[in-house]
Design a protein that fits this description.
Elements (H helix, E strand, L loop, with lengths): L1 H7 L9 H23 L5 H31 L4 H23 L6 H24 L4 H20 L2 H9 L1 H17 L2 H9 L14 H29 L1
Helix pairs in contact: 2-3, 2-10, 3-4, 3-10, 4-5, 5-6, 7-8, 8-10, 9-10
């Protein structure tokens, strides 16, 4: 019984602990988003249920990890880098899968999906090495991670994915463009957090008072929930049509 009490106990949070606050809010927001997506699945035709399911899985996986990251921060007052990258290695490829799912109507092949997944994994693995394993060479690993990111951005903005979206037209094209903006602008938050927390030629960022955990937490909530809402809106429009 004592073990159960200790497990359920919530660590005290200081009133000025903005990092802990963003961990808590991020966890609750993504948990609520998961419930919303899962409960709305049966409102759509079968062809859109997979997309809504993936949206719910993205926010659910993130909510579980944020629960652990919140407790880790409260107990150790240090960034839960390992848990964060485990979350990303699961959720970011799923976000790439969403592009394939909405473009299937225009004939998207699985090769596009696997290409996006491959470069997202490269982006994350090299980012983790730079942030947690080989910090003296963080700039180099960050460069490799950034190149993988730019390949993804090119594919969806100018490459095969863009052509498929234009072929689909209508609400699919509109949703694709919105997701592209999430990748271009929303995902740009992560390199900012990376540079604020690692040594390199960009050391000046650390002096701006930026906290990488706050940056990451806000970025996660906006990007993951936002991705899901775009898919939900697309499914709703397609259902009406």
């Amino acid at each position: 019984m004592n073990f159960l009490f200790q497990y359920l106990a919530v660590a005290k949070m200081a009133t000025d602990d903005y990092v802990g606050f963003t961990f808590f809010v991020g966890c609750m927001a993504m948990m609520a988003a998961s419930a919303f997506f899962f409960l709305s699945m049966n409102s759509f035709d079968k062809k859109w249920r997979t997309s809504i399911l993936v949206s719910g899985l993205i926010t659910f996986i993130a909510a579980v990890h944020y629960w652990y990251m919140r407790d880790y921060w409260a107990s150790n007052a240090e960034s839960p880098t390992f848990f964060r990258y485990v979350d990303w290695i699961l959720t970011v490829p799923l976000m790439c899968v969403e592009f394939f799912l909405i473009l299937k109507v225009a004939g998207a092949k699985k090769s596009l999906m696997w290409r996006l997944i491959f470069f997202s994994v490269i982006m994350l693995v090299t980012g983790y090495i730079g942030e947690a394993v080989d910090r003296p060479n963080a700039w180099l690993w960050g460069l490799i991670s950034g190149l993988a990111y730019f390949v993804i951005a090119y594919d969806i903005w100018l490459g095969k994915a863009k052509k498929l979206a234009e072929a689909a037209g209508g609400s699919v094209l509109s949703a694709h463009k919105t997701l592209c903006w999430f990748v271009l602008v929303g995902w740009a938050i992560y390199p900012l957090g990376y540079m604020a927390g690692t040594p390199g030629w960009y050391d000046g960022l650390a002096g701006l008072g930026l906290n990488m955990d706050v940056i990451y937490n806000i970025g996660d909530a906006i990007n993951k929930i936002g991705f899901g809402l775009v898919i939900f809106n697309l499914a709703t429009q397609q259902q009406a049509e």
